[in-house]
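Fold this sequence, please.
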Amino acid sequence: MQNSIGVLVVDDSAVVRKVVGALLQAAPGIHLLHAVADPLLAIERMKHHWPDVIVLDVEMPRMDGITFLRKIMAERPTPVVICSTQTERGAETTMAAMAAGAVSVITKPRLGLKEFLVDSGDELVAAVRAAAQANVKRLAARASVAAAPPQAPVKLTADAILPAAGESRAPLQTTERIVAIGTSTGGTQALEEVLTALPRVTPGIVIVQHMPEKFTAAFAERLDQVCQIRVMEARHNDRVLPGRALIAPGGRHMLLRRDGAQYFVEVIDGPLVNRHRPSVDVLFRSVARNAGANALGVIMTGMGDDGAAGLLEMRKAGARTVAQDEESCVVYGMPKEAVKRGGVEKIVPLKAIDREILAQLVR
């Protein structure tokens, strides 16, 4: 079909193939090319009709999804959405797939699979549409280079999560500097590029990367292994320290809180904000309120507008604000919207973001 997104589904579950295939076939502007049980069958189908997007399981017989993904990225880079189980093993495998060039991940439970997929149909379709817009050559290029138990989270309503616009509690007399980063589609690879470039002497960093529950711990662990700075999945009341990056847990919002001269994070339950939990806007607005001019806000690759309003509030509170440029983004959605709303002071390529972060040390 002309101007529609052709999708290939590769999953050894007949239920997934049937339900996902039907959801995609029913979505306007998307058509299902094939739904096959393993990568070897997919390779045969792709000889005749190459898909625009591939929805791929990672654990399959005959050839695993990561081997297949690496083969695709080496031969003909194509947007891939990973469909993975919500398990620790699934999270670790999915992180390897993201590092190999996958665009995003959709999770699936082991039980109640059909009902879950139907309920998550909108999310799946949105992921496929975002993948179709992705600068997959940039993903492929990056792919080739490549503590104590948490306290119980606090439950808040949406109104309590989002501080009032323009309200700030941050006194300016402090030497503590904060960097807040928000990203989504393409962000796992982009964050790795930025954080691995930072030395141990770095301002404290708080990060929201749109990612499902259970996957952020594996992501943080992977980054911690390759970075000079310490990278952790955030826990409620963790202190924000120089040389440390805290990543909001999937399925929880993260806010910045100030206590005297020190900064901490709150990890909380709450409703979706901008269709996301964690939400970049929730983090950025709390940073505007509690850090003010002592902060740097960075918005990076991602689909949608999450973070645009919060970044504007940060700028109004005196913070420096930076957006990743269009050329280096996998999806130029979130930065574009932030620029449009006037929240961005400076636009830089991905390779320059580490320098903007280090500039916080000498402000």
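The mean pLDDT is 87. The longest strand covers residues 262-269.
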